[in-house]
Design brief:
The chain is α+β, with helices and mostly antiparallel strands and about 200 residues long. The protein has a single domain, classed as Alpha-Beta Complex (Inorganic Pyrophosphatase), CATH 3.90.80.10. About 20% of the residues lie in helices and about 25% in strands. The chain has three helices and eleven strands; from the N terminus they run ββββαββββββαβα. The strands form three sheets. Strands 1-4-6-10-7 form a five-stranded mixed barrel. It has a four-stranded mixed sheet with strand order 5-9-8-11. The protein has a two-stranded antiparallel ribbon with strand order 2-3. The longest helix has 19 residues. The relative contact order is 0.19. The mean pLDDT is about 90.
Length: about 200
């Protein structure tokens, strides 16, 4: 019996070894670092591909959704160019927030998600967009095609979380988040992040 192709004899690096998604920029893969139940901020260790404890939550806020990144993306000059006042991309994979009706309580899982919009986050002058998506096949959210169709309170909670989750940080990061943008603009950001990745790491 033969092995499936591709066959991962060892665990692939979540950022560099997984596909962007089955139908980018609309249907993506999301690698989850953080769940709404976590009291500790986890972040991908870029060298090993495992999750590392970044810091305990310094505020009482919990991330309202699943949170992670899109494999095979990079926030560089093309992503920067889409955000006014940005002096650079943040040099990380593109962040993504995933809405799911059923609670998912574990991280380090891969989700297939459908993009509906995003948040333009400027962090210390760097473009740090947060794409907003829904879990693909989730019956509760199957009719949602754009962020404007989401409950306003949910989008407000996301904006509040990312506006405040660094407030007690010793380095006093300055964060600015404008109103959520549409799926149409989100696809431009995703395209830019895919092209930035190809340029920065080669390939594409």
């Amino acid at each position: 019996m033969g092995f499936p192709s591709p066959f991962y004899r060892w665990r692939p690096h979540p950022w560099h070894g997984l596909e962007v998604g089955p139908e980018p920029p609309k249907i993506l893969n999301a690698y989850i670092e953080l769940t709404p139940f976590d009291r500790v901020k986890y972040e991908l260790d870029k060298k090993t591909g495992y999750l590392r404890v970044d810091r305990p939550n310094r505020t009482s806020s919990f991330c309202p959704t699943l949170y992670g990144f899109v494999p095979g993306t990079y926030c560089g000059d093309r992503v920067k160019a889409l955000m006014s006042d940005a002096v650079a991309g943040d040099g990380d994979p593109l962040d993504i927030c995933v809405i799911s009706e059923r609670p998912i309580q574990i991280a380090e899982v891969i989700l297939t998600v459908r993009v509906v919009g995003g948040l333009p986050m400027l962090d210390n002058g760097e473009a740090d967009d947060k794409i907003i998506a829904v879990l693909d096949g989730d019956a509760m959210w199957e009719g949602v095609e754009d962020v404007s169709q989401l409950p306003t309170v949910l989008v407000d909670r996301l904006r509040h979380y990312f506006s405040t989750y660094k407030m007690l940080s010793p380095d006093e990061d300055r964060v600015k988040i404008d109103a959520a943008y549409s799926r149409e603009h989100a696809t431009k950001v995703i395209h830019a992040a895919i092209e930035d990745y190809a340029e920065h790491f080669g390939g594409g």
